[in-house]
Structures are given as C-alpha cells and as structure tokens.
Amino acid sequence: xxxxxxxxxxxxxxxxxxxxxxxxxxxxxxxxxxxxxxxxxxxxxxxxxxxxxxxxxxxxxxxxxxxxxxxxxxxxxxxxxxxxxxxxxxxxxxxxxxxxxxxxxxxxxxxxxxxxxxxxxxxxxxxxxxxxxxxxxxxxxxxxxxxxxxxxxxxxxxxxxxxxxxxxxxxxxxxxxxxxxxxxxxxxxxxxxxxxxxxxxxxxxxxxxxxxxxxxxxxxxxxxxxxxxx
Length: 230
What we know:
The chain is built from ten helices and six strands, in the order E-H-E-E-E-H-E-E-H-H-H-H-H-H-H-H.
C-alpha cells in the first residue's frame, strides 16, 4: 500500500470502472471513490437522468483529460481518462500486470479478448437504453449466434492460458478481474440463460472466475459496495 493519493471520478454505478474498484480492493489501496449522483426523472428510465454535479464538473474543465466524460482518475493531482488506460495504470502500480514484459503481454492480450467478448455481447444483446427494434426472432437469433461463437473463443482462450493458475501465471492479475467482471459481475450477461451452460464447458475459465469471487479482498468489496441501479 502506497501513500499515493488516488481519486476515481465516475457515476454512482458499476459501469466501466467497477474492475478498477476491484483492483483497489485487491491492492488494499485507499482511494477516494467520487461518484457523481444520478437522479431519475422516471425511475429506471435512463433517458430521464439528471446529473447536475457531473455537468458542473464538465463545464469547469475538471474532466478535460477524458474530453468531458467520465471516468477520470486523479493521481497525486494529475488526471487522465479512458477506462482501459486507468485499468492498465492501476494494474501496473499495484503489481497486478505480470512479473515481466512477456507475462504483461499475455495479460494485455487476454484483456483485449475480454473486451472483444464484451463488444460482441453489446452488439447482440438488447440495447441497454431504448427500445429493441428487432423482432423477438431476430433478437433470439443474434444472442444464440453470439453464445455459439463465444464457445469457440473460450476454447481457444483456455488453450492460451494453459496450465497456469491464473491468466498471466501464478498470481492474480487484471486479466482475471476482467474475466470475473464480464462473466460474474455483469447483470445483463448473468441474466442470459446461455451463461451457465457455456461456463460449464470451460472449467479453467469457470475456475478463474470463481477464484476471483472468493478472493478475500474482492469478496469483501462485493459485500460492502454501494448498491446501484447499474
């Protein structure tokens, strides 16, 4: 644990930065978890959100490092944005990005694979905000195709991970956290009937996801974190 001062600026939700919060938990690193309040004009209707504090921060230039968006991480007074940049920075700072350059490259590769899983899911799944203009048959076909294709990717990913205990070797890393976040800490993915049957076919992936969930600091964070609408 270092004396570096960290402030993570994001909305009062899990969203793009929950993996970063999990890294802080694993590292036992104190930080300021600054959450912009969100108020719903109509409960559950994201098109009616009011975010006055965020709008003020944007207008003041506080979020300029991420082009007026969140998240932003401030480290000893220096700010930068982009959720992937924040994750990689924290992973490196906390010793969660491999023991050497080659293990870091493997971890980074798996991070990008998980990003592809997430992007593919976002294209196949019903939209997070707004109406799904597809027919039920079209939506079901898209999701079935996604999960079928994912099985081939997970088979290859297990072969790439090999006999290592974790994604990048014998220590937990940011890649393991991202696998957990996608498969076990994502409400939209968890709501899919295809999830559990898919994971049952890939014991290595399932083992890593379960070990992250059981990690003492991760489990503590999951039990104590604020309950949010997303």
